[in-house]
Structures are given as C-alpha cells and as structure tokens.
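Students often ask why inverse folding is considered easier than folding. One informal answer: many sequences map to the same fold, so there is more than one right answer. In these notes we will look at a single instance of the problem. The structure comes first.
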C-alpha cells in the first residue's frame, strides 16, 4: 500500500508561512508524506492556509478550490481542507460555496487538522470547527521546517492594536506572549540541529512583555539570544513604532549576532491619515526612531510598509508620505494600493479614493523609492560583506554561474560561484562590485569561504529522507502539565 501524500498551499504573511510548517509537521506526524514539487493538487490531502488581508483573497481561494473539484471526483479518498484567516472569517460560507471541501478549521485550532480529516473520512461529511480562542500555543505543535539553516521562532501571537485597515486582530485575537524560557529553549534546540539564523516572529514583536508588564522584555530577549553559542544571526519582524523604545536600539547595537536590519512599518507619512488609521505615532516620532537607529548603527538597512490611497488621503497627505520617504531613506519599501477589505472600519469610511488616483500616486511613490533604493545600494560598492548562502534566492544562478545569499543587513547578494563546494548555510566573504535597486553583485573570486554547521545540516537533510515531523517546539514539562492559557492567536501587517 502506497503512502498517503499531502500538499500545503500558503497565502499571506510570515505567520501563515510559519503555521504551514506546523501543518506539515502535524500531517507527517499522522503518517502522510509530502507530495513531490509541482504536484498541483495531485495529493491525497490538499490544505489551503488562507489570508484575509490580501485583495481578492476569497476569489483566489474559490477559484483554486474549483480547479480541484474535478480532480477530487476522479481520485476517491482525496480530501481538501481550508484553514487560516479566511476560514476563521468565512466559516459558514466555505462549505456552501465549495461543498466538496472536507474540513474547515480556524487560526486557533490548527492542531486539530489530522483529527478533523479522520472524522470527515469516517463520517463522510464536512467537518467545520472554528475555535474562538487559542487551544494551544502553536509552538507546542510539531513542525516541518522549510529551511535547514534558518528558522522562524514565534514569540507571541495576536495583536492588541486596532488599525482601521486591518481585520487580522479580529481573526487572530489579542496578543499572547510565549514564555521566555520556552523561546530560548526552542532556539537552543534549533542551533543544536544546525540552524544558524533565526527570525523572532510576532504580529507586534516589540510589544513582547505586555502580558507581564515588562516594557524591556523584548530587549532582554535580544540580549539573551546573543549568549547562545552557535547562533550567528538574529532578526525580528515586525515591530510597531509605538512600542519601539531606546532599550531595543541599544540591544540591537550591542548584541553582535543581532543583525543591523530593521523592518519598521510606516503606512503613511501624514499625521492626519495616521490618526484615521489609528496608528498611535506621528511622522516626527517615526523619523526620530529612524534617526536614533542610524546613530547607533550607521550601516543599518531599514525597510518599511506603506499604504497609498487610504480613505480621505489628499494630495497634501500624500506629499507628506513622499517627504517621510525622502527623509527616512529606506533600503526598500513594500508599497500597497489601498483597497476595501470587508469587515474593517476603513471599508465604510467616507472619502474612498478613486482607483485611478490611487494608481497614479502609487507609481510616483514606487519611482521615488526605487531611486532611493538604488542610491543606498550604490553605497555598498567596494565593501566586503559576509554573505550567508541561501537556497532559491537567485532564479538565474544556474545560467550565470553565481550563487546568492543575504548580507548581515539582509540585502540580497549575487556572487561568483567559488571553486570549492559551497552549501546553503555556509558563509562566503565577497567584495561588492555593482549595485542594482534590489540586489548587489560581487564579481570576481570570493575572499573567503567558511563551511558551517548550518551547511552540514542542509547537506544532511538533502542526503537523507526526512524522518518524522521534525523539532517539537516548546519545553517538555516534568510532572503534571500546566493548564493551557485561554489565549488567542496572531498575524498581519504591523
């Protein structure tokens, strides 16, 4: 009898990517094996981990479900599951619009997926189970990590903010922090397996500690990461300007393995629009944070998120955003055209901006940021950088005989392939010879190649079949387990 296969399709933010690693771990723990690359629905179980933030998320989901319907008819026993934020939001309509779906589960009960699949198989009817609060902190679930050398580590779930453009806090719930000891134990376990880079993940990552009233908990966590032997790179995403304090800047500057990189969502440079968005900072405070970060870390690369065309945005408001971008000089920006998201306060606000006006402003912003990104990248020419070799970052590497990786500040670097064998996770020292707006180029011979435990881990993973679900996250407890907290989960744009 052949093994049952699964495929997980992920939409949305880093939280969903991390949740999908756990869904894969749960399925492998239940005896499934991952379907080959390019299976495109040809699996025994297909799971959609959905997003409710992206435009037309529901249309995309139902379009994909529709394409699987005839495949399911031809494949007896095939099951389809829908989870994530859209499932939490549209719990009652998914099986009505797509009656061939077997399981619908929410953001708070991803651990139930194998049970729900089995129940749907036995009872021969769809199972819809949406928990209203978190049943178990996600990091206590098994996981199948996508990378052998880099890993996400969740430090909190949920969000206490009420941004008017975002529906995710309503779907993921209030912020719930994970215990520091559990976070550090997970990181140590990952490093023991060969991981050399971790990214601390939270909806509002620098609000960590709000559960216990410790405003310096996040900076203390960063410093604790600096004491973990073998951990080479620490990153985090996404912080919120409201909670970004000087002790965090000091911890970043003074902890060698915390990388000089910061993603700080701006959303708008206009105080009027920031107020309408319920963003609890103003332009002056935002630029003040950027100034203090650069004073402490002159080489820091700072990226951001910006929304163009929020309801009520005037040309003067937009000019304030352009001014902020010029002052901040972001390395890069993720720019979005505002569009109505049902269920958000902004969806019913007066002053919705015509699509053609939003588009025109968006193009002006992109052109400005492109110019700044290129100018900032040109400053890297002539520098010597340590690049951690990445997997899948350079789409043209095969044709150009190059490899690709990330500099300490997270800039993408393409470099000439060294003569010696180099694996993802290894570190190559290169001299930058050319800059484009979105990448750097290092032509010529590498200055040094350092084979790492992370590279060993990648090599081992690719030489042997994946065994079991991978790392179990969270600390094992001795004696009677503590009751699970009645918490809620987290994921969206900060």
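Output (designed amino acids):
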């Amino acid at each position: 009898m052949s093994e049952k296969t699964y495929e997980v399709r992920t939409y949305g933010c880093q939280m969903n990517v991390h949740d999908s690693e756990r869904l894969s771990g749960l399925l492998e723990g239940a005896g499934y094996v991952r379907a080959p690359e390019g299976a495109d629905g040809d699996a025994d179980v297909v799971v959609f981990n959905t997003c409710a933030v992206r435009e037309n998320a529901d249309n995309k989901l139902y379009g994909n479900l529709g394409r699987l319907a005839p495949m399911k008819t031809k494949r007896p026993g095939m099951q389809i599951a829908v989870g994530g934020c859209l499932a939490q939001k549209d719990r009652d309509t998914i099986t009505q619009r797509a009656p061939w779906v077997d399981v619908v589960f929410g953001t708070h009960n991803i651990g139930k997926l194998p049970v729900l699949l089995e129940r749907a198989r036995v009872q021969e009817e769809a199972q819809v189970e949406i928990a209203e609060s978190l049943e178990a902190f996600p990091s206590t679930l098994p996981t199948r990590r996508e990378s052998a050398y880099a890993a996400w580590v969740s430090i909190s779930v949920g969000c206490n903010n009420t941004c008017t453009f975002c529906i995710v806090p309503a779907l993921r719930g209030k912020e719930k922090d994970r215990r520091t000891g559990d976070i550090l134990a997970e990181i140590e376990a990952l490093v023991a397996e060969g991981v050399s880079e971790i990214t601390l993940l939270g909806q509002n990552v620098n609000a960590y500690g709000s559960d216990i009233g410790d405003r310096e908990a996040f900076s203390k966590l960063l410093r604790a990461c600096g004491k973990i032997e073998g951990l080479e790179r620490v990153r985090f995403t996404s912080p919120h300007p409201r909670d970004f304090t000087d002790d965090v800047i000091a911890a970043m500057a003074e902890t060698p393995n915390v990388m000089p990189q910061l993603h700080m969502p701006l959303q708008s440079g206009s105080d009027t629009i920031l107020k309408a968005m319920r963003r609890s900072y103003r332009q002056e405070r935002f630029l003040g944070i950027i100034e203090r970060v650069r004073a402490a870390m002159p080489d820091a690369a700072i990226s951001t998120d910006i929304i163009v065309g929020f309801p009520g945005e005037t040309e003067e408001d937009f000019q304030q955003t352009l001014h902020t971008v010029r002052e901040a000089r972001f390395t890069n920006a993720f720019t979005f055209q505002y569009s109505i998201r049902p269920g958000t306060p902004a969806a019913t606000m007066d002053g919705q901006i015509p699509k053609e006006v939003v588009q025109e402003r968006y193009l002006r912003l992109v052109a400005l940021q492109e110019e700044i990104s290129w100018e900032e990248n040109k400053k890297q020419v002539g520098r010597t950088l340590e690049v951690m070799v990445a997997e899948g970052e350079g789409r043209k590497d095969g044709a150009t005989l190059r490899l690709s990786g990330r500099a300490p500040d997270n800039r993408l670097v393409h470099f000439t392939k060294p003569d010696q064998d180099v694996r993802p996770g290894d570190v190559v020292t290169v001299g930058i010879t050319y800059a484009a707006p979105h990448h750097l180029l290092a032509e010529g011979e590498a200055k040094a190649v350092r084979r790492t435990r992370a590279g060993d881990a990648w090599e081992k993973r690719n030489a042997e079949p994946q065994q079991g679900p991978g790392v179990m996250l969270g600390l094992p407890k001795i004696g009677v387990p503590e009751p699970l907290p009645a918490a809620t989960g987290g994921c969206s744009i900060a």
